[in-house]
Design goal:
Number of helices: 17
Distance between the termini: 59 Å
Number of strands: 11
Strand order of the largest sheet: 4-3-2-1-5-6-7
Structural class: alpha/beta
Largest sheet: 7 strands, parallel
Bound molecules: magnesium ion
């Protein structure tokens, strides 16, 4: 029996790669559902190729565009609740969640409630709602397998020992395009500069998050939730080559690392085939070509976003929702030219410090904190 997969966020960078990986896994997988936020025509073309029984689009006004492209008649869900409706309507084994930002939250929670396997590329979902998702997964038996390259590495390295023997996790960071820029040069960063990542080819939101190192801040929070770690057990280390994807240090001083070509198809495939491994589309790593691996401490003054990650990981509660939403809103404004590069971390920090903190929020309270933070960032920009 082939494994049945639903891809949430199939038209984004990770979603497209996931479909390529699935197509390469020779008939062992059946794509039963595809969902996207806004690219109706692209979603229609993907559906024609993979023939899922249902498709979902979050923008209701793009349903016509989607249906116009379809060459067969799958069930179509449209509107803000479409992704969750798809999860409910179609029987599946694995939900691959690659929605940009926190838009995949409701659908992911539903998949966890159903006790299925979730291949999780949307770190935002864990950052916002880790306090609800992780206990829920323990109750329902859902398996959450990270797709984020660092967290995939940690997940793999943790298999080398007992959880109680873990001393520390080293979260590697490429450092982004501004790693070697002076503080003065960083004052004049343009959107184009921020969209040029040295080692990874990714979508625009995460590329800008890598440039501010907000991506690493989100990943600190993500790692704490996924692996039940304390914030002080996580150390960010800049590793410009992006060959070591992260390391786990055990109590005897042994460090276990996962290395590979910086290519998202490897962690995508591992999340699908785990615990099995299969030949992958990404080219194998040639260590003699790499020759050198370098490590630096991160510069927390030039990249203040990092400190926000630790702050949020320590405080928990509604902080994750505010961090994520404020950053998403600020990145949007930066891309529109309305705020500067430095403003992204500044506005996010302001929203974090000024929001009405709740220690054990419900989903509704998390969503309210999310909405408040987006409004607040936009308001602060206007004034
Ligand atoms: Mg990552």
């Amino acid at each position: 029996m082939p494994q049945r997969a639903i891809i949430l966020g199939s038209t984004g960078s990770i979603g497209c790669n996931a479909l390529d990986v699935l197509a390469g896994l020779n008939g062992e997988w059946d794509v039963v559902g595809l969902a996207a936020g806004s690219r109706g025509r692209e979603l229609g073309r993907q559906a024609n190729r993979f023939r899922p029984q249902a498709v979902a689009i979050a923008s209701a006004d793009l349903a016509g565009e989607l249906e116009g492209e379809l060459s067969y008649s799958p069930q179509v869900f449209a509107g803000s609740d479409a992704l969750r409706q798809l999860i409910d309507a179609v029987p599946f084994d694995t939900a691959f969640c690659a929605v940009v930002g926190a838009g995949g939250l409701a659908a992911t929670i539903r998949a966890v409630e159903l006790g299925r396997r979730i291949a999780l590329a949307s770190k935002e979902v864990v950052v916002v709602a880790g306090s609800l998702l992780m206990p829920l997964a323990r109750r329902t038996g859902a398996t959450i397998i990270p797709v984020d390259s660092e967290h995939s590495a940690i997940f793999q390295a943790l298999h080398a020992g007992r959880r109680e023997d873990v001393r520390k996790v080293y979260l590697t960071a490429s450092g982004g395009p501004f790693r070697t820029w002076s503080a003065e040069a960083m004052d004049a960063i343009t959107v184009e500069d921020a969209l040029r990542h040295p080692t990874w080819d990714m979508g625009p939101k995460i590329t800008i998050d890598s440039a501010t190192m907000m991506n690493k801040a989100l990943e600190i929070v993500e790692a704490c939730w996924l692996f039940d770690l304390r914030p002080d057990q996580i150390e960010v280390i800049v590793h410009p080559e992006s060959i070591i994807h992260s390391l786990v240090e055990f109590c005897d001083g042994s460090m276990i690392a996962q290395l590979g070509t910086p290519d998202m198809r490897t962690p995508i495939q591992y999340a699908l085939t785990y615990p099995a491994r299969q030949p992958c589309l990404s080219p194998p790593l040639d260590l003699l070509q790499v020759r050198e691996l370098k490590f630096h401490p991160p510069d927390r003054e030039r990249f203040p976003a990092l400190g926000l990650g630790y702050y949020v990981a320590r405080r928990g509660g509604t902080c994750g929702a505010v961090l994520n939403a404020a950053n998403e809103a600020a990145v949007e404004l930066f891309r529109e030219g309305a705020v500067s590069f430095h403003d992204i971390a500044r506005l996010t920090e302001k929203a974090l410090k000024e929001h009405e903190f709740k220690e054990s929020p419900t989903l509704d309270e998390l969503l309210a904190a999310d909405r408040w933070a987006r409004r607040e960032v936009t308001r602060c920009t206007a004034c």
